[in-house]
Design goal:
Blueprint: E1 25-29, E2 34-42, E3 46-52, E4 58-64, E5 68-73, H1 76-85, H2 97-113, H3 120-138, E6 142-144, E7 147-149, H4 151-156, H5 158-175, H6 179-192, H7 199-237, H8 242-266, H9 279-296, H10 301-319, H11 323-336, H12 341-355, H13 381-385, H14 401-431
Antiparallel strand pairs: 1-2, 1-5, 2-3, 3-4, 6-7
Length: 432
Amino acid sequence: MHLKKRSFWLILTLALLPLAQLRADSVTLKTGEEITGTIKSETDTEVTIDVQVSASITDERVIEKTDIAKIDKTQPDEIAYQQLMQTQPNPQSSLSSDEYGQIINNLTEFETAYPTSTHLDDVKKLAAAFEDEKKHVEAGQFKYLGRWIPQAEAMKRRVQIEAQELYGTMQQQAAAGDFIGAMQTFTSIDQAYKTTRSYPPAVTLAQAVLARLVPDLASRMAGIKSGQAQMKQTLLVTPEPERSNLIAQNKAEQDRAAAMLANSMRSGQRWVPLIPDSQASIQTLQRVASNDALRLSTTPVAAMEQSIAKVDAARASMDAHDYGAANVLLEQATSLWSQNEDARYALDQLKADVSTPTPTPTPKPSVTPRPRPSATPMATQEEVMIITPTPAPEKPFYMTIPGALGIVAVVMILIGVVAIVGKARARKDEVE
């Protein structure tokens, strides 16, 4: 099983465009207005400049030179450098290998296109930083909450990582002004990742997006109504066949918008595409925006954020082996937000840590230095003379002089006794 990768860092779209498109010029009018964009052409009498209205819309403006006070053309390497440096490694999370490759290629293109740029060293350092992260990812690691973790652990944290990736995509869309896209991404978070760490900040971002989207939709609706009134006036004074052509053209546009809207609604999208000239599209978006703004206003974001902070504090206590404090903090975290998946995961970690006794380190035996044998001093002549000889082993008693004398005495006594007995028998025989 592989984790599904999405971009979850604010990689600005311009940073991934060909470097030739990364231009920023400015035209200052005599009225004081400054127009920033890309100068497409310039003649003796006028300047044509493309102005970026939104992430996907540009407006071409032709300005008479008699109205211009000053023209500033930014050096190509300067604007390219500014755009590239806005893309930095995320300290909390990682990208996919392909996304790293896109960024690195773009940085390499800068080095090739502007070899004498004063910003070359900075660009090389940034490329090296992304190369290092790319190696981690290709080794199967993921950066989660600022720490590189192996794939096995990443699979356990899968729901959190996927939510974090979606939240990063939502940030990217909001930064680019794609409010509908940001809310579509938030809907995915809201439906499948409501128990993750990324949910509270995603709610906060959604509320900020809605705060800008709601008045924008109201302004667009007013513009549509004004345009419809102008169209009626135009049709009144337009002769045929131009009048019929205008009506047919307007109807065709409305039909295309209606078909696009119907397809989106059939696919189950809550946030349908924003079709600028479609009253039905804007009305649908206004209704969804109003409902979401009301619903999100009751979400206890503050309590969720406090719960996440308690989990982080509990992990710090676990690292310090203060399991009692960690348990109290995690109980508080679940009390603040009972669905906090990160708190439940930390509780499982805590139980595992407590059930696994910490091994007591065995002290290393102290090494007693072995005494070096001292040289035996040689005896002097005087010492040799007084050396006591080793006593001979003790002889048996019968081999000593007293023992020998005792044995001889016993033998003589026995001989005497035998002689007396013999004489007594001889006398007895004579008498008889």
